[in-house]
Task: structure prediction
Amino acid sequence: MTPIGSFLRLFVLPFSLLTLTFAQVTADPASGQGVTEISAAEIDATPGNPGGACRIRYVAPPMETAASGNPATVTVEAGGILHVEGHSSNMIDGVRIQQSGRSFEAEFVTIDDATEIYQAEGNIRIREDGLLLTGNTASGNLFSGDAAIDAATFLLHQNRLRGSAARVSRSPDNRLTITDGRFTTCDPDDNTWLLEGDEIELITEEGYGTARDVRLRVKDIPVAWFPYLRFPIDESRQSGFLLPSVGQDSDGGTDISIPYYFNLAPNYDLTYSLRSIWKRGIANELEFRHMDARSENLVTGAYLPDDDEYDPRDNVDLGAADPFDFEEQDRWLAHVKHRGVYGRWVSRINYTAVSDIDYLRDLGSPTSTDTDFNRVVGSTQSPALLRTGSLDYRRGNFTTAVELRSFQKLSQIQTEQYETLPRVTLAYRTNVAAFDVTGSVQATQFDRNSDVPNFEPVTGARYVFDGSVSVPMRNIWGFLVPRADLIHRSYDLDDTTALARDDAEITTGRFSIDSGLIFERTTSFLGRSVLQTLEPRLFYLYAEEDFQDDLPRFDTSSITPSYNQMFRVNRFTGYDRIGDANQLSIGVSSNISALDNGAHMMTLGIGQIVHFEDREVVIAEPGVDPEAGTSPFFITANVNFSSALNTRMTYEWDPDESRANRGFFSLKYRPANNAIFNLSYAYTNEEVHRPGQFQNEKESNVSFIWPLGRSWHLIGRWNYGYDDNQSIESVFGVEYNDCCWKTRLVYRRFLEEPRLIAVTDPTGGVNRVFDRRADSGLFLEIQLKGLGSLGGRLDSLLSDTIPGYRPE
Result:
């Protein structure tokens, strides 16, 4: 230690209302390393994390606090110090100036006492919470925080943003002005992408940056230029352009979307996208989101004027001068989603309208939000958009609800469905001693547009009055639940046909007894000690027969039979049919669970229904005999071989016909490396296949996302129909995903929705042609992480086609 160093440690000098304490230490040999070669002290390595996880994270060493406990205290350490009272202080040989929350290191530092300005040279390191600046020379004010560093590098730990510049200036409000610089969020050994500009400003406290005369380099190749760019540097929401998304398909051609995000307020924002579809035209897409303490709201819209490619005609006249000429169509989408909670009131809206049935297939959903358009597929209907609005009130055991429901069909050959405009429901549930008592009253107004010329469908109101009383008796060894129902239906119909009563009503009763026993034992399964149960179950059901053939079917269809459906009180959905029954369902199931952690490992079940009387209330179903004394055997199995591997199987065997009616098998594999593999096969015998569904009797589906190394993934799906021996949909692609960037190239081929087209030949003859064309598309997406990216369309496609996929 030098004599002057020993002397200056003995006292405190007043300096600009702060306290300086000088000391001498040996400089850290690692302190000279710059940001481009990050010191090991800055890095927490996390190798082996797949699926785009960062290999490292930056960790700033903890900042020292002042020994005196006063945050204004400044400690100066150096190998040699020369202080001239009232003039300057000169420090050499490993200078370190430390204040609570801030440190400054250099080889040589001169501080002017009058101006408080310093000049520093050699291995400059300026550190604050979450910020590291290095360089060769620097000047500034140690106490206000001003700094200007030449030949500089910088690192923002939390933002993972690092870079270099000819000069970096730091202001007291933590703004960094970068002159002739470049930066990236990639790992230290990876400069896949860089943004470089003549003037870049990083407003760290607000989480965004701006740049002028900006070049984007990928693999050191300039790929884009921007006169001005505003970009996020953390996860906070910032107004500005997001990176474009690019795609291509055979119908629309090259598809480029350029989104701009408006951060209007903490609780609402807006995204506008200008979308160029090469063969179709220019589309405008808008998304508004609003959230407050009581509600969440989303409004989405899209408009494409004069689509140059879309032909909406259902009638084609080959005798016309130009049979392939069609009128260009305006195409649009509107979507509103709302959920609100106001005390005991709950409101919901989910409404979507599109200009034509092909809109979502051709153009997809706009913007990046994972909007739920309520696509529904029922047992007797093709895909449709479900539009709902409801208002619920709950108080104790009492519930009331008002609901509006309508549909927009998405298939040209689909029949219109009934709308409920409105439906009002009052429900009550209580316990009286050992009795569970429930009651409900419902009034619904049904309406429907006609699909057939000169035919008006039955419409009108339906009133439902249901009540039930049950006595559940349960124990660890079994259960017994007798139940009695009183059911009343009343109709006030309009536009009735000769087969329908305009003021029909029925009242009937229903009785059931559900019972079961539970036997347990310990054994071994797949090498583990397990608890196995054997659970026989008897379910007796009696329902009076009442003539219902002349009642409308507003919302009723038959339920596909299965093991679980054997124990339902009604074999129909909805309220328009009450199935008569005098039957006994006999089932037995077994469950296996691990003894050490209770994890479910396997469930097996088999059962059959014994009918004591013929069924009189029927909806014509292929292969269903209402006079059969027994049902087919229903078998179900679910096996979890591990936390990653699951299989499920259902099977229906008809011993009277010696045939398999239905079968389904699925396998799901989710290993720890974020891989996904799905396999399924569905079979329906042609004797029981419901007509008009446009789904195959035999169909397989394979989908996967599989890692190929640390960052590469293989993406695929193959949906194959064996009836026509053709692929329904096939998807294949590759993805590269790491902490720095993500890119995906995906090819998709699929069958469009079936259509019926009337073709008029030159002689005037009309032929109706069934058309189901194949379409294909090639999708390319690039996301530079840390700059923001849209990319929602490809994420939505993969979420729809690969079960278990979640966008990162």
